[in-house]
Amino acid sequence: MKISLLLTGNELMSGDTVDSNSAYIAQSLKDLGITPYVKKVVGDDLPLLVQSIQELSRISDVLVINGGLGPTVDDLTALALSEAVGSPLQRHSDALKHLEQWAEARDFVLTESNLKQTDLPKNCEIIENPRGSAVGFSCEHDQCLILCSPGVPSEFKLMVEQQILPKIKTYGNINTATKITRLRLFGVTESGLQDIVNQKFPDWPAEVNLGFRVQMPVIEVKFTTIGEAHNELNHVWANKFQSLFNSYVIGKDDTRLSQALNTALADKSMTVTTAESCTGGAIAAGITSEAGSSAVFHGGFVVYSNEMKQAMLGVSPQSLETYGAVSEAVVMEMAQGAINVTGSDIAIAISGVAGPTGGSPEKPVGTVWMAWGSKQNVKARRFFLPMSRLIFQRTATAIAMDLLRREVLGLDTDVDYFSELKKKQVLKSEAF
Amino acid sequence: MKISLLLTGNELMSGDTVDSNSAYIAQSLKDLGITPYVKKVVGDDLPLLVQSIQELSRISDVLVINGGLGPTVDDLTALALSEAVGSPLQRHSDALKHLEQWAEARDFVLTESNLKQTDLPKNCEIIENPRGSAVGFSCEHDQCLILCSPGVPSEFKLMVEQQILPKIKTYGNINTATKITRLRLFGVTESGLQDIVNQKFPDWPAEVNLGFRVQMPVIEVKFTTIGEAHNELNHVWANKFQSLFNSYVIGKDDTRLSQALNTALADKSMTVTTAESCTGGAIAAGITSEAGSSAVFHGGFVVYSNEMKQAMLGVSPQSLETYGAVSEAVVMEMAQGAINVTGSDIAIAISGVAGPTGGSPEKPVGTVWMAWGSKQNVKARRFFLPMSRLIFQRTATAIAMDLLRREVLGLDTDVDYFSELKKKQVLKSEAF
């Protein structure tokens, strides 16, 4: 089955936007055993779009068009499809209903530009878009199923899963039962994982396709088998992998680090508090990004200056003076202070040099101290994350959440993270 | 001048590799005033490659082919070009010399696979590759200059700068200069912008290309003119646009909302503090994501429970009891409390129903109160953002930063944001 992709948008041609949608749908098609045939990208150019739709629908069984569904004059997909297949545009009642509901839910007044999104080629079927204002639409032409979808990645991805893949399966009469197991790991690198797998599983079966995908800060590992006969094999090898990497596995499917932490806390009926300097509130924001976090988190502190570390958390001026703000003593006192004020069961405290300035020979940019634990048992550890400010903050936030997850679950917290990752240490640190 | 790109490689089709080469050359071509015409990506498929070379060379002045120059059997570019232009492969002496020198410098013994890289279509010119073993090559066909280049990004980038761009310039006799102005706006929608531009500027000149790009939470507006003769036109119309949208413009180029806020605070030597419930620390994290934020931010509070609102900020139990946590009275007291503890010049306080549960008929999910201002002058306002939890938190965080930016700069804070956007109100809210 030949599936081609046509992406449209000046921003894709100018290099201002990096296209992630085509990689996403390609990965999803892989589960059906299909690799896209041709991918073509063109700007907002009507004759070129019309010609490309005609060319690709002639050589493909399915054509997925992405982008150009918006309300502005440079959004040309509906018009181009209308010309390519010879079906005039007309206002589509289902599309209009969708747009009106979308607007009403947002207290949004529709304009003429918006209404243009509901003018679609006659005889098109609409493809529901649960997230955005623009519906997708599909038709058949030249024995090719043409599916038009919005360029906004969050909208596109949901529509691929819920609508586009099922339509392709039905159209192509595809019934290869694919089994996919997905695990998410934190704290190991992609190449580290591959090396360990090669070394520990020289007999990895060809039927179980092993794929890695970095989804910062976690890595997704996907085990894919095609055909029901291989379901058991999928199960067995995914389990072997999970046992090997043990505490690095934060969960299945789309588990987020913040979600794994919230679940662990809720399961143990524990509460957590945060005392953040260099991450500036990002750990608290991560925890509270999860629904239901009010059960495990009551309050936290962003203590950026030395004065606020004293005023808000009772850190001693002596410790700040003697050891500096980025020190074991200060993060220990920050953690204790946060527990004292909030009465939470455990705390995490963090203080580091996020950069780009503020480093010194003893404490270069990237140095960070974290303290975590309960009132009776606060531990501290130094990390070195010499990265850009943004990546430093994201990585430190993720490590902090993982330390808390491990603490709550009673897992080893003396593990290697990224910069300190030595292959041998990883191999040692788990009981293989 | 029409320049098309043809990328080849199974790894590009499967989505395992994200193509960065085409964005790189597109950005380089921008300086010549050129946006690529068509980009096509195909796997290692000989008939498809031959057909694509023929098609693209027919409709383009220049065709850049990328990938497929390696030593393995799936590297098909030279063979495909040979068939497409009807010029047989033969061992190319310059290519052989390059390969031998490359191998010698690396103490590397050449194999038959390597030598295959020196079999090129007759009459091709080679394009030097200072980094890798595979030379590029070029020929003319159908009045189109065809340039073949390796897929390895580091090799490709160097060759674009040193060889490919100069060849394109010479071939096209190009000496134009492009002028691009970029502005970033917050608080208006893409469709709203387009409608207002259509209405207010019916005489918008065709020479000034106007492009919109949503980069949540901001919108980038790009004004592009080609040729030095139009530089002034670019300047004049970008200014007209900026005057029209006035306070919605947060800055030029890549300005972030957090950056605009930090800059405004630093310019006025002011400090800010945060008292966050439903955003859980995201406003503080946004402010402190900027380098140098310690000058304008000393500390902030995440007060998720009613108890913490009282303990950390001194919110009165009576207000919480009478009006509830999501209320004007409580956010006003939160803002005052944060200023009292930190001594900051201004504060923002926020409390809302992020969902997915916790709503009521009077305060449905999406309801949010914000209070902001100085100790003597705290104002409050209710917003309604009925979105997913994640988007609610991101949007509320962005609005909070924008309210602070407007407060510091003395701009109107009674503006429309997204869900409350009514076309007429936007038109009224600025002095056109």
Write structural notes for this entry.
2 copies of one chain form a homodimer. Chain A is α/β, with parallel strands linked by helices and 432 residues long. Chain A folds into 3 domains: 170 residues, MoaB/Mog-like domain (Molybdenum Cofactor Biosythetic Enzyme, Chain A, 3-Layer(aba) Sandwich), CATH 3.40.980.10; 75 residues, Alpha-Beta Plaits; 173 residues, CinA-like (Maf protein, Alpha-Beta Complex), CATH 3.90.950.20. Chain A is 41% helix and 23% strand. The first copy, chain A, contains 16 helices and 17 strands. The interface between A and B is large, with 83 and 84 residues. Strand 2 of chain A pairs antiparallel with strand 2 of chain B, so a sheet runs across the interface.
Which pair of chains forms the biggest interface, and how many residues does each contribute? A-B, 83 and 84 residues
CATH class of the largest domain in chain A: Alpha Beta
Structural class of chain A: alpha/beta
**Widest sheet, order of strands of chain A:** 2-1-3-8-7-6
Named at the architecture level, the CATH assignment of the largest domain in chain A is Alpha-Beta Complex
Uncertain runs of chain A with pLDDT below 50, 5 residues or more?
A: 419-432
Identify the CATH homologous superfamily of the largest domain in chain A: CinA-like
Oligomeric state, counting identical vs distinct chains = homodimer
Structural domain count of chain A = 3
Number of strands of chain A: 17
